[in-house]
Amino acid sequence: MKMRGPRQVGLLLAAVLLAGPLLAQEGPTGFRCEKSPEVVDRIVAIVGDAAILSSQLDEEIFTQRAQQAPLPQTEEEFRALCRQVVSDLVDGELMVQVAQRDTSIKVTDQEVADGVDQQFRSIRKRFTSEVDYRAELLKSGFQTPEEFRRWLGENQRKAALRNRLIEKLKAEGKLKPVQPNDREMRAYFEQFGSQLPPRPATISFRNIVLSPLPSPAAMARARVLADSLVWALKLGADFATVARRFSQDPGTKEQGGDLGWFRRGQMVPAFEAAAFSLKPGLLSAPIETPFGFHIIQVLRIQPAEVQARHILIMPEIDSADAVRAEARANEIAEAIRLGASFDSLADLAHDPAEERQASGVPETQLPPEYKEAIGPADSGQVVPVFQIRKEAGLRRKYVILEVTGRRGEGAITYEDVKDQIRRRLSDDLSLRRYLERLRASTYVEVRL
Question: Strand 305-313 and strand 357-362: pairing?
């Protein structure tokens, strides 16, 4: 089933304006969905107490033309397309009716109006003059731009209702995953694989990211400062004001240390353990993590998540610390080239705040430092140590990287997209089962 969201509606508009009526004339291959060209519009299906008209069938055919879908070459193929499109319209109407009955699903007039304004302006820009624009509207069955805008609004609202319903069904667990078999997945690839763009050149690698370590004296100074701030806060100092003045977390400093809501697994273990054990309003003692010392205050608690703020005090890093880190990185790289275990060294030295490996990354999406350092290196090569986070000054990090795989550009294969197809078909099949239940409990009559 093809659900039409805002982007797809945009394609439909372009087709409506540029393609001209399909059923009022003959189709692109000379076939018609309707046998009587004199009939301006008629009912092709009934869903509950709503009618689906042949003009809506036109619109869906336009959508396929806009998306450059293969056109049928025989009358039998064309009529099969018409039957499929009517079935899709029935499914869409079923979902709209369910969404309209659900008082928890809201689509505001402002939301629809904003989306329509954006689409309306985008379509209008395609034409150099108002005369050409109105002429194309007239060809597509719209007497005025205002009529076209109303049509846009209706479709925008329906698409939003369907999407909100699907989101709610997923959140409530009412769309149970249905696992497709290999035959279904291969059939899907055979049908749509030729429409996929070429596979880009990709690279896979693993790395050890090494951060300069502060001296014991610097750690002690940072701990003393963090302790003094905790006492100041307990004596009545304003948390947000202290965070703006002293915190060294650039992402939260100006927001008074606010981290927002977060769940387990999003923070480093020591920080997470403290945050999920605090009661709202209480302060933690300084918590040591690889980033430094954190003073945490939980604001609110919900099942499985908390809202908190923090102050980060980072130990000072001097030039000697940076020199030691670079030297250690070069030693580790040389040890790996001589046969030492990459994983064992990563367990000892890798910064837990950084990713340890990447698989199948398009070369064009590599960060500049990585792209320059990797160059033409192939699988099994350890590249020269390089720096990242250079903007952090002496806190810049050093990377020991081994290329684990390289793949050139080429046509997409089934194995390349198998996992994506599985997820897509699982969603489609679960939605199909839901729609079958809706059809069984709703009056549906197809008159095409």
Answer: unpaired
Say if pTM beats, i.e. exceeds, 0.90. no
Length of the chain: 448
Regarding the domain delimited by 216-313, which CATH topology (the fold level of the hierarchy) does it fall under? Chitinase A; domain 3 (3.10.50)
What are the pLDDT digits (tens) for 310-350? Answer: 999 999 999 999 999 999 999 999 999 999 999 999 999 99
Tokens of 294: 């954190």
- How distant, in Å, are the alpha carbons of 318, 327, 353 from that of 322? 7, 9, 18
Taking every pair of Cα atoms in the chain, the longest distance, rounded to a whole number of angstroms, is 91
Q: Give, rounded to a whole angstrom, the gap between the first and last alpha carbons of the chain.
A: 18
Rounded CA-CA distance 209/349 in Å is: 8
All CATH 1.10.4030.10 domain ranges in the chain, comma separated: 6-188+421-446
| pLDDT tens figures, 412-441 | 899 989 999 999 999 999 999 999 999 999
Pair of tokens at residue 400: 């020991």
CB half-sphere exposure, 28, CA atoms < 13 A: 15
Say which residue the tokens 């969603």 belong to: 427
Q: Which CATH class is domain 6-188+421-446?
A: mainly alpha
* Residue in the block written with tokens 């050149």: 201
